[in-house]
Design brief:
alpha/beta, 30% helix, 242 residues, six-stranded mixed sheet, Purple Acid Phosphatase, chain A, domain 2
């Protein structure tokens, strides 16, 4: 069986549809979502509806949390605050209730999904190196866990020690634990602007990072038509919870 593991969609409907189309061509039969369905993009309700239609295991991201609450937005940079306020206005009460009800961690048929870290999933810490990954491995009860949050795909491995690599594919070994960042569907931040997701083949035991072209011009026009900034630089979006 092949799973499409996706997340950090950030209300980018065009990127999401491109990924879902590509995953069907790749033979993916099941889906899992590592969170941040909304925030930063112009199509939050459409993306929520699409993920809900998939009826797949989904965990909560920090943008999902902050967009579905009524808490003050103190500490956020002005651009991010503006976008979160706008997103809150677009979501229905049912959308917000569904987002609030998402769990932080989920185990699915032998693997785990989380948005940020396993050691403290509600703190929304970033895993950017082997030292960060080490803490999550201590709380990982399956050999394989998928996560996101940094918007940069990366493989972390633990056997005798913790190591990492940034390739496009990895073959899984039974004796090794894996903590794999699947990248971002809606807003990659690693220099490659294409939508990004992961394919997990359970029978052949491999994971591949897949890049997909999409109509980014349309996504930006939607932002402009909504009165939102057409481009969000990675350092701006990372200054706060997003």
């Amino acid at each position: 069986m092949r799973y499409a593991i996706l997340g950090d969609i950030h209300a980018n409907q065009e990127a999401l549809e491109a990924v879902l189309h590509d995953s069907s061509l790749e033979g993916c039969e099941e889906y899992a979502c590592i969170g941040d369905i909304v925030g930063l993009g112009a199509s939050p309700r459409e993306c929520i509806d699409r993920i809900r239609d998939l009826d797949c295991s989904t965990v909560k991201g920090d943008s999902d949390e902050i967009s579905s609450e009524i808490s003050p937005l103190d500490g956020l940079n002005p651009i991010l605050k503006r976008m979160i306020c706008w997103t809150r206005d677009q979501l229905s009460s049912d959308d917000k209730k569904w987002l609030r009800g998402l769990t932080l961690v989920s185990e699915i048929r032998g693997f785990t999904i989380v948005h940020a870290t396993l050691d403290s999933p509600s703190s929304w810490a970033y895993v950017v190196n082997e030292f960060d990954a080490m803490a999550s491995f201590s709380y990982q009860h399956t050999n394989l866990c998928f996560f996101g949050h940094t918007h940069c795909p990366k493989f972390y491995m633990k056997d005798d020690c913790v190591s990492s690599e940034a390739g496009d594919r990895i073959d899984l070994r039974e004796s090794t634990k894996y903590f794999i960042n699947v990248g971002s569907v809606g807003q990659p931040r690693d220099g490659d602007p294409r939508a990004c997701y992961a394919i997990y083949d359970t029978e052949q035991a491999w994971v591949r990072i897949k890049r997909v072209d999409y109509d980014s011009g349309l996504a930006q026009r939607k932002l402009i038509d909504s009165g939102l900034p057409p481009l969000i630089r990675s350092e701006q979006a990372s200054d706060g919870q997003a």
